[in-house]
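Researcher: Quick one. two chains, 226 residues in total.
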Amino acid sequence: NAGVTQTPKFRILKIGQSMTLQCTQDMNHNYMYWYRQDPGMGLKLIYYSVGAGITDKGEVPNGYNVSRSTTEDFPLRLELAAPSQTSVYFCASSHRQPEAFFGQGTRLTVV
Amino acid sequence: DQQVKQNSPSLSVQEGRISILNCDYTNSMFDYFLWYKKYPAEGPTFLISISSIKDKNEDGRFTVFLNKSAKHLSLHIVPSQPGDSAVYFCAASDTYGGSQGNLIFGKGTKLSVKP
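Model:
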């Protein structure tokens, strides 16, 4: 079992560029989440999904979009990247709330 | 406004002694609490949890205590080992409420266990 896999691990974006952070899990979990962690801060929920075809906003959704076409995949899309989106992004999944398994993270820098 | 607070950014403990990490919360609707451990360049890993119907949960060297009246929980690690050096996040969930069971995290406490 690979668990939760995120790609890429690192990325540098220029202001205004777009990108998709990939997340896939092989545990057949219904729940999936995207968090961001800024330096010295806790994790904040961006978007979450309770199953394929269903997504909802978390605490900090502005500037992001998600989709959930399959149980396994939950990509996070950044449109028009801004320096405020410089952060470490974590994808997570869970079979039942609230315990969640996290991926290793994507470190994103917007310059 | 922070709903989950970890007021100590760091803690240093000698190997073999007890580590006590503290967490306070403000939302009385939280009914489930978790501790996650995070090493550098890795994702958080689930450590231990406690439901609001309990006041203590133990798993090996790790014990979590919950004081609902004080809205306070603590994680005890006994004995502490150098491999326990990591950032520990407290998280809370309002299972049946508006957050739909999603986790609210504190800012974390960096534990250093010295040999």
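The CA atoms of residues 14 and 77 of chain A lie 15 Å apart.
Researcher: Thanks, that's what I needed.
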